[in-house]
């Protein structure tokens, strides 16, 4: 004769185990193929003036549910193809804190992910132009040293000296093969421009500043100080060359810090830094640095909307290639095809 209590116990055990299985399946982490980190959004993620995230969001995550991550500034969005992204926050501390929280969150499996650090930036007029898009070859921390006022040193000599002990956290060479792939896949991307940006470029005598937008590479300088003026620009170039990096071409506020966090957790072979230039790091010869910092109405560079769209279009070409050829990219950056 069947024991009723034993039957009830067996049934409850089965339901309990079934519940555990369902819970485990629901908790399966998202396997991320490409993670895009932007620094700010102006308003909503869609439907208004676009900041650094909106063009990405509208391309990949319109129907995605937000994934709340404790410790991150904003939620993460993921699509069915394993492309995820979030607004990390501006500056070294906020952005890297968000990235660390996301990396450690059990809802996301980033163990094989490629990272695109995406945003706007400044550029020296001797190296770049408004609305250009640039892939980093090196990331250099603008800080982590000693500085003094020019009048307190010898005339004409640098006013920056690196501080010992920061060698492993102030300089990052990004994977050359990955940079080469990025240029191979995106170097010919048609970029948008604007009449206001075209007119603004003509204020500068440098040939580079007057160029139409293009896709290029070089060193990205990470500093919480939003530096301006030819003197600070020359110092940034001095630091880049002092550390053995390529020419300084982009000034931004987050990439070196974010890369350090990723490197300590997963390594940095799959990290990319992608920036679009929305301003020059100094005024033209007819304006002072303070005038450049506080322009009159209608005197700004223009081209912001076009630049953030250019960044997303260029970045999407890289993203879509990785995802659509995941069998080749999953284990690491593949060899470049023979020329």
Automatic annotation (TrEMBL):
One Pfam family here: NUP
Signal sequence, renumbered to the chain: 1-26
SUPFAM superfamilies in the record: Purine and uridine phosphorylases (SSF53167)
Alphabetical list of InterPro entries matching this protein: Nucleoside_phosphorylase_sf, Pur_nuclsid_perm
One GO BP annotation of this record: transmembrane transport
Keyword Signal: yes
Key word Nucleus present: no
Identification of the protein by name: Purine nucleoside permease
Alphabetical UniProt keywords: Plasmid, Signal
An annotated Gene Ontology molecular function: catalytic activity
């Amino acid at each position: 004769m069947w024991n009723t209590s034993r039957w009830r116990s067996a049934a409850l055990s089965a339901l309990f185990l079934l519940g555990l299985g369902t819970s485990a399946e629901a908790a399966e982490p998202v396997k991320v193929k490409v993670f895009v980190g932007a620094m700010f959004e102006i308003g909503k993620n869609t439907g208004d003036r676009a900041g650094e995230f909106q063009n990405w969001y509208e391309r990949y995550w319109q129907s995605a549910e937000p994934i709340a991550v404790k410790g991150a500034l904003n939620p993460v969005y993921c699509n069915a193809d394993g492309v995820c992204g979030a607004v990390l926050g501006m500056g070294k501390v906020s952005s890297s804190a968000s990235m660390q929280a996301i990396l450690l969150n059990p809802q996301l499996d980033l163990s094989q992910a490629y990272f695109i650090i995406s945003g706007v930036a400044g550029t020296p007029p001797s190296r770049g132009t408004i609305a250009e898009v640039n892939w980093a070859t090196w990331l250099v921390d603008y800080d982590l040293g000693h500085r003094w006022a020019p009048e307190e040193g010898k005339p004409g000599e640098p006013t920056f000296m690196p501080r010992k002990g920061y060698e492993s956290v102030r300089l990052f060479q990004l994977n050359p093969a990955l940079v080469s792939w990025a240029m191979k896949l995106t170097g010919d991307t048609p970029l948008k421009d604007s009449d206001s940006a075209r007119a603004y470029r003509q204020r500068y005598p440098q040939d580079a500043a007057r160029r139409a937008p293009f896709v290029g590479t070089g060193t990205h300088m990470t500093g919480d100080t939003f530096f301006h003026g030819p003197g600070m620009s020359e110092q940034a170039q001095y630091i880049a060359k002092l550390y053995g990096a390529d020419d300084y071409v982009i000034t931004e506020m987050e990439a070196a810090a974010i890369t350090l966090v990723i490197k300590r957790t997963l390594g940095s072979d799959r990290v990319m830094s992608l920036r679009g230039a929305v301003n020059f790091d100094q005024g033209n010869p007819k304006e002072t640095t303070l005038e450049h910092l506080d322009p009159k109405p209608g005197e700004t560079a223009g081209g912001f909307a076009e630049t953030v769209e250019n960044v997303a279009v260029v970045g999407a070409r890289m993203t879509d290639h990785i995802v659509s050829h995941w069998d080749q990219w999953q284990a690491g950056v593949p060899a470049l095809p023979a020329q």
